[in-house]
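User:
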Amino acid sequence: MSFQTGLQPLWLLLLPAPPLDITLSNVKDVYASTISQVLQKAAETSASSSTATILDVALPCPKVSTSKTHHYAYTQNLLRQMYSLVCLQCTEHSIDVRYCNDVDVRVLLFQSPDPARSETSPGSVENSPFVGPMVTLQRLASCARPWQRLCAMNDDGGEVLLQNFLRLRNPSLEDVRDTIVIERFLPERSPHVSSSDRTRTGIDNGKPRACHDSVAVGGTFDHLHIGHKLLLSMTALVTSPVIPPGSTQRRSITVGITGDRLLENKKYREHLQEWRQRQSAVQAFLSAFLVLDAPPQRISTDNSDDRKGTQERAVKDFWSSGLTIEYVEIFDAFGPTITDESITALVLSRETRAGGQTVNEKRAEKGWPALDIFEVDVLDASENDASSEEAHDFRNKISSTQIRRRLGDRSGTADQGQSSDADVV
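Assistant: Predicted structure:
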């Protein structure tokens, strides 16, 4: 996304419910044609506007979190396969930062409609804020996020969803047809699941796991890619949902972001983003995933005058929903997980599992309770029977090192440092 120079175009793609069995092959059968068409069109807009188009992809999730539990395995698998599909389509159609036609895709989840409840009356949204990570279709439709283009599948399920979305638009907003371009995309073939099948909950992917009031995640987050987005999305999803009105309970997400000083020997370091850029990208993504409307109250502390990097920088966002997100500069593999006893859960990629074990060993030495570890599976094209070349291109898209290399190829400044990234997820 390094070629951004101005206000980014903002699109919304509405997708019907996923197939019963969430595999990459099944997700591809249902969504690939539509996502491919929308991505190509968005990439054309990115290239012509010299700034990456933001594409919010919204689909219903049958497994809804409660205040106590979360269907982690199901939701993680659904998001993983959706982001894998996006990556495959971008690879196939040469949509990439190298060609200045990148698309900033963000997969959003909303609650599957409850047949027992009517969700057809516009303007009757409850007074609580438009906060995620999972909202109802009515809240999605009624929010004031300024989408310029609304895309939908041109089949029975897609049309029903589109019409419900339009009917639920808040009448206090301007007429959607005057402010949003609506476009339908015809699937190349009919999906293998019917509209009625899509509304069923399908196979149970693991038992619900407890949600947490204080969750941590860490990484370098250089040139934010879909692997990072999956990691951050799952961090938000294991955090306890919105607290009841009047409650004094607070919820927090702590994001540890590697300090610049530790990255001096990275490969293609001339294209490495500074801490502030990486922090801003993570902040923008989490804000878009969690809150549909108003910005947070924000307190920033930037100790950038400390050139030796011994004093961490931090940014805190305070949301009206009772959620605090703190972005902290870290200088080791542990960060706040061994200095803040109140943190109770850690989200990490499966390949960094050993790091989670080490954190808990350090906490045990202090007599602190162990963190509940949530692992995020690595994105992988092999489930799609991809060729070795396709799998290589896929991996390159979820590697910050390779993104920096491609930026260097584009500018002719691909100078290598000594080490590669350790935070590829």
